[in-house]
Amino acid sequence: MSVFYRKYQNKNPKSVAFNKWFARAVTIGKTMNIDDLAKHMSEHNTPYSKGAIKGVLTDMIGCVRELMLEGKAVKLEGLAIFSAGIKTKKNGAPTSADFSTTKHIDSVYMRARATGEFTRQELTKAGNVTELPKNFTDYHEEDDEPQNGGSTGSNTGGGSQNSGSTGGNTGSNTGDNTGGGSTTGDNGDRDPDGGTNSDE
Fold first, then answer.
1. What's the confidence (pLDDT) of residue 200?
2. What pLDDT, on a 0 to 100 scale, did the predictor assign at position 8?
3. CA 114, CA 82: separation in Å to the nearest integer?
4. Cβ partners under 8 Å of residue 58, min gap 6
């Protein structure tokens, strides 16, 4: 098992890390969907069929969403704690009395805080980090922010500023994450709504 990366150079002349080299995580092959996951699980010495597993997974996703929208946090031990977060309009309201849900709430999004074996510390210990061979073409860049050289609030490592995360920020908030994607950071990474993601 390996976590693959490709090297890239910071080409932003305004950055303090200009011309420095960094690593960006990539995924290989196609993204696995529920069908693929159910098939994979059914082949791991389980008495349950692919269809039965897919049905449970599908129901679980619907139930997690339902519970989140009731204001609850759902903890899947060893994976993540799922809850709803909100993003307010950039300029806010001038006074508390002026604040309006319809006028000042921009969006509701999913937060996922890593737990157990999915925390950054545990994944770092377990992950075999390997550079992707240069002739390998079937990959997707998943990490748009630098893992080194960045600073909170500004992007100095050469990656793109994450101001509208759609797929989820998976654990390294080096820029201000003001988007509505899910955050799966841990050990004190900031949530887009100003809170902190902490392992539980």
1. 52
2. 92
3. 9
4. 34
Residues of the chain with pLDDT under 70: 142-200
Rounded Cα–Cα distance for residues 125 and 52 (Å) = 33
By the 8 A CB rule, do 183 and 168 touch?
yes
DSSP H/E element including 44: none
Measure the CA–CA gap between 102 and 145, rounded to whole angstroms. Answer: 32
Query: What is the token pair recorded at 103?
Result: 């006028």
CA separation for the pair 121, 139 (Å, rounded) = 25
Q: Is 23 exposed, middle or buried (0-12, 13-18, 19+ CB in 10 A)?
A: middle
Flag whether the pTM goes above 0.85. Answer: no
SS3 62: helix
CB count within 10 Å of CB 116 equals: 14
